[in-house]
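Pasting as-is:
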Amino acid sequence: MRDYNSVGQRLAHGWRLAGRPEAAAEVIREFIRPAVRAVPGAIAARLKPCSVLLPARLDGPDVVSRWVETEAALEITAASEGIDAHDLALELLVCVGQALWATTSAAERAAWLRLLRAEIDARVAGEIDEEALAEKRRLLSSPAAASSRRRLEAYARTAFAGTVAEYIHCLWHDVTVREGPRHLPARWLRERLQMLARWFPPGRGYRLWAG
């Protein structure tokens, strides 16, 4: 019988695969492990020790990942059935970004909001991913919505999580910048990634930009 609490289930940063992962061993080896290794140590240090669970599915068909913080650990769960292996790793990284937002200081949040405000003032319509795009459109749907602190917080949190995932994604391997009105223009993407690189420098052997 395979021991799922063995050394083979350990990940970088002291994180571990918990329970009995239902993702294929190749998916864990080629996608989950490299994605976790790319997480900067400064990010891992902000978070509690992380347990990653990879069941086939979660409670509902529309739920593909979630995270919860206990007294001892951060538990990230991502459904592995019917999802591309690369997308599975990105779901894990988005959860990392969501958990990281909860650790940000008042100064960091203020700096992040200033950057988002600069994008909005520059009439940047696109976003880092579909979830952030939806939150941005809700925020800008009316003057009343635009003045809502709750909507601004939801947008800032979602955009931050997606950007953290993309930052780690860029450290993990070369990434092609997506173009089009729904996507964040390269200039503004660079601004976000450089901000995160200042706060959470890449680990040894990783770099944000090639060359």
